[in-house]
Design a protein that fits this description.
The complex is a heterodimer. Chain A is of the alpha+beta class. Helix content of chain A is 51%, strand content 22%. Classes of the chains: A alpha+beta, B alpha/beta.
Chain lengths: 823, 212
């Protein structure tokens, strides 16, 4: 905090000294500028005086020349139009050459008789200017120069007059005047806007100025009489002539009504008594001349310096703060570490103690007290050896402690401490010495480790190891037993068992496999399938193995394997991967069952089943035909007879006729029953008209019998053999029966078309569907039967269904395959 | 006298038929055949005005007989008389060239009438069969039209709807439920991309499914 204050004061002082220096510098500059301005003004006024004097008296000589010209004289002598005209021409000529305002001629009474502006609106001709001093003076033989505002033209001018003499030179005939414009003189003053130039008459009326607003004002405050005098002279128009408000302050300065100070220089005009040239210059402007460049140049410097000072103060402040914080942290860390050390010392769960060089305890840790069962005040200041057993005490006093204070270190000294309750504990003591400046050990820091528990633990560990040894032996025995069992299984199982490594090399085969290969396990180990089987077989085995390894799960394969006797046996193999320690499949185990006989039986069964089915169809067809054609025909004939009878008896025996009618109805019903039975067994349409007609009839029939809309669509079909037609019809029938019975469908469709020499039958419904893999699917709704029928004609049946998704059954049968046709 | 040939493999049936035919004073059975081959022979020898033939016979069946007679005696009207009442049989028989078709069950009531009708050159078939036939012909001659995408049943319903039948009438005509008819109607509109029955009618007329 103190540092901050110092920095703050320092920066403030820097700022102050800079400011004061700046101000002094500025003031000095200003003074010199003022001096310079004064000198400049003097020079300027002097120049103006010369200039103005010259300008004012410029036309004196030309006026004199003009007065001597005969045409002028003649015009006054003989004031008739002709001589006046000549005079006018002369006046015009002079006016033009002199660039004057007007040149004119007055007679002795002051009346203007000729003028260069005779044709203008403000012509002087006819005007009398005898009140003008330049006239009166000329008439008294003195050529005059006069500054005034024109009474006729309202234009300021410098009037130069000269008397015109005739032959008699005593009295002038008149006066010739050249009036030059003031504006030109004003323009030629050539001064900057900061300078104010005033030309004043003896009373202080400002007549000429580079500031138009100053004209005709009064430099000083005048009395009323004086102002009336000005009005009377008609020299400066008609007024009003106001006071400019300027006041003189000592000799050099004037103040305006706003309090602005001006530096003033004045001088008289030559040949024009009483008229002054006054030069005013604003002190502010002078100061500005100084300060502007100063500010322009030094402003950024000062600004940059301030910023730099600000930055450096800030930077220094930051640095100082950091330093302070760091120092505080170090102090705090020191304090913390000391506290930690003390706390560590006291709370470390280890027995720590320190003794001084005389062997007295100077400090002990809490744990030390706890381990020995004392309080701190019972211990500090006592000899360490008081707490040792007798033998340890002797050992310490005679050997350990003297050695320690000589070497400064001791390690793993086996001591026995005696606890407050008399118990003895074993410790290992290690210590280092703390040394004073001279390097002499002054006190110790000792750690004692209670090894009583460790000694106990060692004994316990030994016991545990023995226990583990016994357990391991038990385990080994079990493993041996299992191995014996598995070896037994491998030896006696009729299945072929083998284990291969990842690269397909055999590592183990069982007795059955040895028998088949005619080689022992040892001979086969390390060989691959390529070494044992024909290439095609080996390739198939290897492919299956790799699949197991790749997908890391078990698979079932049907693998044909050649036996030494040349026969090929079918095996059903289960293959599963073994995993190594890295989690990758390290090998494949294979258990294969010979299913050659089973397959043979299966095929026989299939053939049997096919022939049974075909026989059944044949039987059904025969019965259906018998029923329909034979029994049906007989019934029909009976019906004809009964109708005939009824007709015959109608007149003669109405009762008998009624009876005959009844008979007829009974026969009708029987015919319907017989037809129904026959159709259920096998529809004649299928045999007589073929599959398309049969399905068309059947779907129509479904619609009649149920609420289901059953559409049948088909393409043009080639000739279909009877077995295929029967299978397709029965499958469609079964599927639609399911639809009607179980599906709760509102729509069903049957599609039939040929595609690449195959018949495609599709039966679909929008019902509630079922799980095609469930047991009920194959049994309850006869999926198995349908598949069997499809198989028997060499076809394939696929079923798509799911709960709530409807059912879609697709049969695909090769149209040309008659090889398996059982009929 | 109208000379009738009866071809049926059941004598008992022939007997019944003969009785029915001969009930009419202007008809007589001039020949009887027990199988197809015999029937053809009998036509040659007995020169009947009309042949009444069963479909299911040994040797070649009724359909075969019609085909053959169409070749040799195109003028001879053949009336199929059979146990089968499925429309498919009727269609097949008419396609083969039969002029009429009736079931043996209905013979006592209709045989005589049927014989007279076919002799006059008219067809004698049930309404349903007639319709099926017409539709089959219509579809056969209109390949590559939207009709192709319709099943026979859809065609039937389309035709009846176009003729102005109500759903109830159509349902009872085909022995199906009203709901089924409605479903067919919906499917027809969707398949043919039509909006209402009026459009259905126009479509049916354009495709000559009904005559105006």
């Amino acid at each position: 905090m103190r540092l901050r204050l110092i920095l703050m004061v320092l920066s403030l002082l820097t700022f102050l000294s800079t400011s004061i220096g700046g101000y002094l510098y500025y003031h000095n500059l200003k003074e010199s500028a003022l001096l310079e301005a004064e000198q400049q003004a003097e020079v300027r006024v002097e120049m103006l005086r010369i200039n103005l004097s010259a300008k004012i008296s410029e036309n004196t000589r030309p006026a004199r020349v003009l007065a001597g010209i005969p045409e002028i004289v003649r015009a006054l002598e003989n004031p008739r139009p002709a001589p006046l005209g000549h005079a006018n021409q002369v006046l015009d000529h002079f006016n033009q050459n002199l660039e004057a305002d007007v040149c004119y001629l007055m007679d002795h009474s002051g009346l203007t008789v000729a003028s260069s502006n005779r044709d203008d609106r403000d012509s002087f001709v006819g005007h009398n200017f005898d009140f003008r001093p330049y006239f009166t003076r000329a008439m008294q033989h003195a050529p005059a120069t006069y500054l005034a505002l024109g009474t006729t033209s309202g234009i300021r001018g410098v009037y130069s007059s000269c008397p015109v003499y005739g032959t008699n030179r005593t009295i002038p005939l008149g006066v010739v005047v050249v009036k030059a414009p003031i504006e030109r003189i004003e323009e030629e003053l050539g001064l900057g806007p900061e300078d104010i130039i005033l030309v004043t008459n003896p009373l202080g009326v400002i007549f000429i100025s580079n500031r138009s607003e100053w004209r005709y004002q009064l430099l000083w405050d005048l009395s009323r009489e004086e102002i009336a005098g000005i009005a009377r002279s008609r020299q400066f128009g008609e007024g009003p002539w106001r006071w400019t408000g300027l006041k003189l302050r000592d000799d050099r300065y004037v103040l305006d009504h706003k309090g602005r100070r001006y530096l003033m220089n004045r001088t008289r005009i030559d040949n024009y008594p009483g008229w002054d040239i006054i030069h005013l210059r604003s002190l502010d402007a002078i100061a500005k001349v100084v300060s502007e460049p100063l500010i322009r140049i030094t402003g950024p410097v000062v600004f940059t310096a301030s910023i730099l000072i600000g930055f450096s103060v800030f930077f220094l402040y930051q640095k100082a703060s950091q330093e302070i914080v760091k120092r505080k942290e170090v102090q705090k860390a020191l304090g913390d570490s000391e506290r930690r050390y003390r706390s560590l010392y006291n709370h470390t769960p280890a027995m720590l103690h320190s003794i001084d060089s005389s062997g007295h305890l100077v400090s002990v840790s809490d744990f030390w007290l706890e381990a020995l069962g004392y309080r701190r005040n019972e211990v500090i200041g006592r000899q360490l050896t008081d707490f040792l057993t007798e033998s340890s005490r002797l050992y310490a006093e005679q050997s350990v402690i003297p050695d320690f204070f000589r070497t400064g270190i001791c390690q793993d000294i086996p001591y026995q401490f005696r606890r407050a309750n008399g118990e003895v504990i074993d410790v290992l003591l290690s210590a280092v010495a703390e040394r004073d400046e001279t390097g002499k050990p002054v006190r110790s820091l000792a750690v004692s480790i209670d090894v009583t528990a460790r000694n106990r633990a060692e004994r316990a560990l030994q016991l545990a190891q023995e226990e583990l040894g016994r357990y391991t032996r038990g385990l080994e025995k079990q493993v041996q037993e299992r191995t014996r069992e598995i070896t037994g299984i491998l030896r006696y199982t009729p299945d072929v068992v083998s284990i291969k490594d990842r690269d397909g090399r055999y590592t183990l085969i069982n007795t059955r496999f040895e028998a088949i290969l005619g080689r022992s396990n040892d001979e086969v180990r390390g060989l691959t399938d390529t070494d044992l089987f024909p290439p095609a077989v080996a390739r198939q085995f290897r492919e299956n193995d790799l699949k197991v390894v790749r997908e890391r799960r078990s698979f079932q394969f049907e693998e044909p394997m050649p036996h030494p006797d040349g026969t090929i046996h079918d095996y059903l193999s289960v293959k599963f991967p073994f995993y190594g320690e890295d989690g990758e499949a390290s090998g494949v185990c294979e258990i294969s069952t010979d299913i050659t006989e089973v397959k043979k039986a299966q095929n026989q069964l299939r053939r049997l089943s096919a022939s049974i089915m075909a026989g059944q169809e044949k039987e059904r067809a025969a019965i259906a035909r018998e029923l329909h054609d034979e029994l049906g025909q007989v019934l029909t004939a009976l019906r004809m007879d009964s109708v005939w009878m009824a007709k015959r008896l109608e007149d003669r025996d109405p009762a008998a006729a009624r009876r005959a009618h009844d008979m007829c109805r009974l026969i009708d019903k029987n015919i319907e029953d017989v037809r129904g039975m026959a159709i259920r067994l096998r529809p004649g349409v299928l045999d007589d008209l073929g599959l398309v007609a049969a399905l068309e009839w059947y779907t129509t029939d479904i619609e009649r019998r149920s609420e289901i809309v059953c559409a049948f669509e088909h393409a043009a079909m080639p000739v279909i053999n009877e077995a295929v037609a029967t299978a397709a019809y029965r499958i469609a029938q079964e599927a639609l029966t399911n639809t009607v019975r179980h599906a709760r469908a509102s729509k069903a469709s049957v599609g039939l078309h040929a595609e690449r020499e195959h018949l495609i039958l599709r039966v679909r419904d929008n019902g509630r569907g079922f799980d095609p893999h469930g047991a009920s699917a194959s049994e309850g709704i006869g999926l198995a039967g349908m598949k069997e029928r499809a198989n028997l004609v060499g076809g394939r049946l696929r079923v798509w269904s799911a709960h709530g998704q409807g059912t879609d059954i697709r049969l695909e049968v090769p149209l040309m395959d008659t090889g398996r046709n059982p009929t | 006298m109208i000379k009738v040939l009866l071809a049926d493999d059941h004598s008992i049936v022939r007997e019944g038929l003969r009785r029915i035919v001969e009930e009419s004073a202007d008809m007589e059975v001039v020949a009887e055949a027990a199988d197809g081959r015999d029937a053809i022979r009998q036509v040659e020898t007995a020169a009947p005005d009309v042949a009444v033939v069963d479909i299911s016979m040994p040797g070649f069946d009724g359909l075969e007989v019609i085909t053959r007679l169409k070749g040799s005696h195109p003028e001879l009207p053949v009336l199929i008389l059979t146990m089968h009442e499925e429309a498919q049989y009727i269609v097949r028989a008419i396609e083969a060239g039969a002029m009429g078709y009736l079931t043996k069950q209905s013979a006592p009531e209709q045989l005589v009438e049927a014989i007279r009708k076919v002799l006059k050159g008219h067809r004698f078939i049930t309404d349903e069969a007639a319709e099926l036939l017409a539709l089959r012909i219509a579809r056969g001659t209109h390949k590559q039209t939207p009709l192709d995408s319709l099943s026979m049943r859809e065609l039937q319903v389309l035709r009846r709807l176009a003729m102005g039948y109500t759903n109830r009438e159509i349902a009872s005509a085909y022995g199906i439920s009203i709901k089924t008819v409605d479903t067919y109607r919906f499917r027809l509109l969707k398949k043919l991309n039509l909006r209402n029955n009026a459009q259905l009618s126009r479509f049916a007329i354009q495709n000559q499914l009904i005559q105006t």
